[in-house]
């Protein structure tokens, strides 16, 4: 195969991977938008769908906020109700987090996946095939699925402590401010810097981890390793979802854009440090305003 033909094949493979990533991200974001617009959110009044059935999922009991219209229901006071989550509540919330993480993180891992796909095609043409891109991507997503389980547990705990408002954001200004300060300070830590450098330089990551793998399980492990660095880079930013609202679409999009810029714009540590200083400053202001 000539060089021109090979380059054409590589471009085609990268185009296929990019198209698949776009579809995955679009579907994930469509699910998040549906949840944010069509679902009955905690603390909101239930819509009248005829016959008294819910038109969406009532999560008011999940976060301990069963208050409608400022705590009044047709002029009668409604006491807050708190109950333990059922298995379906936990499964629903876990699914929400997992799909949201796919939507937020897929764009930022795209450069790594495109590199993998291109090298994989060339390796097959040279008679030295490597495991498919899908195995690497599956390992990467597995890390964020585990994180989603932890985030679901954190949401359950905050709900049990009655610290979430109807938008699934913390109702405590002090707690919200402290989370902002912690996330801002983490942006300046050496761990953040180490993890971010691994995410910003896919070739350097591969060189430091033994290169591509021929066995599927090896590629899966490589994807897990890359996902672990990504988690180390972004977990504090994900905690900010409890500040602005887990179902606040603009807040979700803002965090996703910040993650993408940190990993793809060649500014080194500038973006995380500027954003970290802003977070810490705003969080400090919020805490002082609360007293």
Structure report:
The structure is a single chain. The chain is mostly helical. Helix content is 69%, strand content 1%. It contains 10 helices and 2 strands; from the N terminus they run αββααααααααα. The chain has a two-stranded antiparallel ribbon. β1 and β2 form a beta hairpin. About 14% of the residues have low confidence.
Question: What is the strand and helix layout of this fold?
Answer:
Layout: H1 3-38, E1 72-73, E2 76-77, H2 87-125, H3 133-160, H4 173-186, H5 190-200, H6 202-208, H7 216-239, H8 241-244, H9 249-264, H10 270-290
Antiparallel strand pairs: 1-2
Helix pairs in contact: 1-2, 2-3, 2-9, 3-7, 4-10, 5-7
Separation, N- and C-terminal Cα atoms = 71 Å
How many strands appear in the DSSP assignment? 2
Give the mean pLDDT: 79
* Largest sheet composition: 2 strands, antiparallel
- Uncertain stretches of 5 or more adjacent residues: 40-81
Please state the CA-atom Rg, rounded to the nearest Å: 22 Å
Major sheet: arrangement of strands: 1-2
The helix/strand series, from N terminus to C terminus, equals: HEEHHHHHHHHH
Q: How many helices?
A: 10
Shape: globular
Please report which band the strand proportion falls in: under 5%, 5-15%, 15-25%, 25-35%, 35-45% or over 45%. under 5%
Structural class: mainly alpha
Helix content: 55-70%
Short note summarizing the structure:
The chain has about 290 residues and is mainly α. It contains 10 helices and 2 strands.
List descriptors.
single chain, 291 residues, mainly alpha, 10 helices, 1% strand
């Amino acid at each position: 195969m000539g060089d021109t033909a090979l380059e054409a094949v590589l471009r085609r493979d990268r185009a296929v991977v990019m198209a698949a990533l776009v579809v995955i991200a679009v579907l994930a974001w469509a699910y998040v938008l549906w949840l944010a617009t069509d679902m009955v959110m905690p603390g909101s009044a239930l819509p009248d769908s005829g016959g008294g059935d819910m038109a969406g999922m009532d999560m008011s009991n999940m976060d301990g906020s069963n208050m409608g219209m400022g705590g009044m229901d047709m002029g009668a006071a409604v006491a807050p109700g708190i109950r333990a989550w059922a298995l379906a509540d936990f499964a629903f919330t876990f699914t929400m987090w997992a799909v949201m993480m796919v939507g937020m993180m897929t764009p930022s891992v795209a450069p790594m996946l495109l590199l993998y796909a291109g090298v994989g095609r060339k390796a097959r043409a040279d008679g030295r095939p490597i495991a498919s891109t899908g195995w690497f991507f599956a390992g990467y997503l597995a890390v964020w699925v585990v994180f989603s389980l932890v985030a679901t547990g954190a949401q359950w705990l905050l709900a049990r402590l009655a610290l979430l408002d109807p938008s699934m954001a913390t109702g405590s200004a002090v707690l919200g401010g402290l989370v902002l300060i912690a996330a801002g300070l983490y942006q300046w830590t050496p761990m953040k810097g180490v993890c971010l450098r691994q995410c910003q330089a896919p070739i350097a990551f591969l060189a430091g981890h033994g290169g591509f793998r021929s066995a599927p399980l090896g590629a899966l492990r490589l994807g897990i390793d890359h996902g672990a660095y990504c988690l180390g880079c972004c977990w504090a930013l994900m905690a900010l979802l409890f500040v602005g609202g887990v179902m606040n679409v603009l807040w979700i999009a803002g965090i996703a854009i910040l993650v993408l810029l940190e990993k793809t714009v060649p500014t080194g540590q500038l973006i995380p440090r500027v954003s970290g200083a802003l977070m810490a400053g705003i969080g400090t202001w919020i805490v002082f305003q609360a007293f």
